[in-house]
Amino acid sequence: MGKENDNVNHPSHYNQGGIECFDVIRAAIGVDGLRKFMLGNAIKYLFRCEHKGQYLDDVKKARFYLDQVIKIHEE
User: Fold this and answer.
1) What is the pLDDT of residues 26-36, one digit of tens each?
2) Structural domain includes residue 57
């Protein structure tokens, strides 16, 4: 992932002190837990995309999380 601020693929608020939030989650709950977390987030964004007024951003965020699940399985 690029380090530039991208509100869908790499929000700056998910990286503090050079530590990526997903790395902390992976260390805390393991790879399988991270995969389930990513799937849950994809579902969350798809579930509410019609109701928040940010349809395209939410669908892109769901895609981002699904892409992360794919990357985990390919590792």
Assistant:
1) 999 999 999 99
2) yes
